[in-house]
Structures are given as C-alpha cells and as structure tokens.
Amino acid sequence: MYANHDLVKVFNGEKKSIEQFNEYNNTLYHCAWKAQFLSGLMQPIMNFIANLGYVIICIMGGVYASRGIITVGNIQSFIQYMRQFTQSITQLANVSNMIQSMIAACERVFEFLDEEEEVPDTNYPKPTKDIKGNVDFEHVKFGYDADKIIIKDFSAQVEQGKKIAIVGPTGAGKTTLVKLLMRYYDICSGEIKIDGIDIKDFKRDDLRSIFAMVLQDTWCFNGTIMENIHYGKLDATDEEVIKAAKAAQVDHFVRTFPEGYQTILKEDSTNISQGQKQLLTIARAFLVDPKILILDEATSSVDTKTEMQIQKAMDNLMKGRTSFVIAHRLSTVRDADLILVIQEGDIMEQGTHEELLKLGGFYEKLYNSQFEECS
What we know:
There is one protein chain. The chain is an alpha/beta fold. It has 2 domains: 5-113; 135-374, P-loop containing nucleotide triphosphate hydrolases (Rossmann fold, 3-Layer(aba) Sandwich), CATH 3.40.50. It contains 13 helices and 12 strands. The chain has helices at residues 5-10, 14-66, 72-94, 96-113, 174-181, 204-209, 225-230, 238-247, 251-254, 274-288, 304-318, 353-359, 362-374, and strands at residues 135-142, 151-158, 163-167, 189-194, 197-198, 211-215, 223-224, 264-265, 292-296, 322-326, 338-343, 346-351. The strands form 3 sheets. Strands 6-9-10-3-11-12 form a 6-stranded mixed β-sheet, sandwiched between helices. Helix 11 (304-318) links the parallel strand 9 (292-296) and strand 10 (322-326). The relative contact order is 0.10. The model has no long low-confidence stretch (mean pLDDT 82).
C-alpha cells in the first residue's frame, strides 16, 4: 500500500486501505500484548514456585527434625538441591520468548536448506567467445512441478541473425521459454542447443553473458543517467556509454537536461517518462553488445509515438543479432522472419506474418481480435 500510494488514491482506496491496516494492526496488537504479558508472568511464577518449594521444605523439615527423623543438615541439603534444580528452570523460563523466536527462525532456515540444490555447472565448460547465435529447441518438455507440465513437446530451429516472434495467449509459456533458454530453470527432457552445443555444456554465467534482455518492467536506480547505462557493462568507458546512448535514441533527450548524463534519477525515476526509461534499458543492452537478444513486451506500456521511437531503437539493436521478441501487440512483429504461435506449451502454427494470415487459423484470430477490441 505504501509503495503504491498514488495508485490507492487514484482508485479512492484510502478508506479500504485504512480499514485493512487497522485490522492487521489490531491483530498484531493483541498477539504482541498476550506474548509480552505471558513472558512477563513467566519469571514471577517461577520465583513463586521456587519460594513455595523452600517453604514446604522448611515446614516439612522442621516437623521431621523435631521428631528426630532427619537432622538440620539434611534440611540444608534439600534447600541446596532445591536451589540448584529451580535455578536452571528459572533461567530457561526467562529465555522462553527467545527460544520461540529461535524455533521460528530455524524453520525458515531449514526450509531453505531443504530446497533441492541447483545442478552444478559442468567441469569442462565450452567457451562462448565464438558463439554466432544459432538456437535449436529439440523436443523440450518442462513444468515448474513434475505433475504440471507447461511445455509438452516444443521443437524449433532459429538461424543466426533472425528475428523470431513468440506470440500466444497469456499463460501459454512464452516467457517460460526464454527463461529455459537462459537456463534459469532446467528442462525436464529434450535439448536446447546454441551453435550445436547443449546449453548444459556452458557455465551458467558464460551462457547468460551472451544474452541481453529488455523487459516490459523497466528498472532504474537512484543515480546518474551515465551510471544507469553503465550498469549494463561496468568496465565500459564513458565514450562507449555515449555511443550506446546514441544508438538507442537516448542521447537527444539526455542533452535537453541541464546536467546531461550527470542528471540524477530519483529512486522511482519520476523525473523521466516511461518511454525514456525504456530507452535507457535498451541503451544498456547496446552497451553489452549481446549475441542473442530477448525482448519481452518492451513497448506495451507506452503511447504510439513513443512506441515508434522505441521500435526504431530496437531495430538498430536487433541488426545482425538473433532476436526473440515476445509480444501481445501483433502489429509490432509483422516484420519478423519467423513467428511462433504458442498455446498450452506447444507450437500451433509457425511462419511469417503473411503466411499465417493465409492459413486462417489461430494467429489470424489473435491478429483480428486486436482490432475488434480497439473498435
């Protein structure tokens, strides 16, 4: 609620948010009050029990001593034993709240330790220096859970330098596919190859270094524009950063700021527009100079004019690179070399924009539905 305060106000959600906060706050108050009260009672109760034990020993000891059954020394011994016994229990009771906190923390720690470990990298990794960008998916099968398979039998061949568009309804497995390509998850069966080499034969860091991703959700941190672009390649020079900015259509709007590339972006980047933030992320990708490029809904949250500007920057970025473009706006992928239409983890149709329209199948329905929504 705090992070999205503006959104809450826009939808007049203040009253509901305050009610929900009060509900959570009252629950916390009652739980904390009871916990503190019981913790505070623990020590007095244990002291009372210990002192009660002393009283009983003294009374019973006095009775038995008067009858000659035990001596005064026996009474002293019992008192000493009682002290040693109750002292340990009292100390344990005093730290009972710490013990409960420790148990709760241990549950989280052991839950993490019980997670299945990531498959280690190969001991003999292949180099990525001469990678060109040919990608092959061979009968790929994958599911986040073993009993819930998302991608059932996916096969496709992507040639170097081609622009591949991946389209389909929400939840079809489009983003999952590129996560598998970068090995954020390991496939259940099948193979994914780059230049004929199984991606499992690369080190994960080396594999991911040949990719660059431009996502729908832009991310800029509190720092200068120069530092934000620099983040794509930390050892790049300022000249390389400016060159990347020019290629990504960033330089012209940065020059309009009084401090240029030293303009400091706020924590939430409110001093630049959404389109400008997107162009900054494209500039980062230019700086990396990747072999394979992944664009995931990179223009979905901007207006048409800004989209054209971003599209121009992305076209420059995709030249000579193997590109995977995930899109809901099918108008942005009409020039793709190959369009893969995915539904429920399988390729339903594939071909160019014109070829798929002639088929009159699922792609045509998706394409025409956009104009129906607009009308």
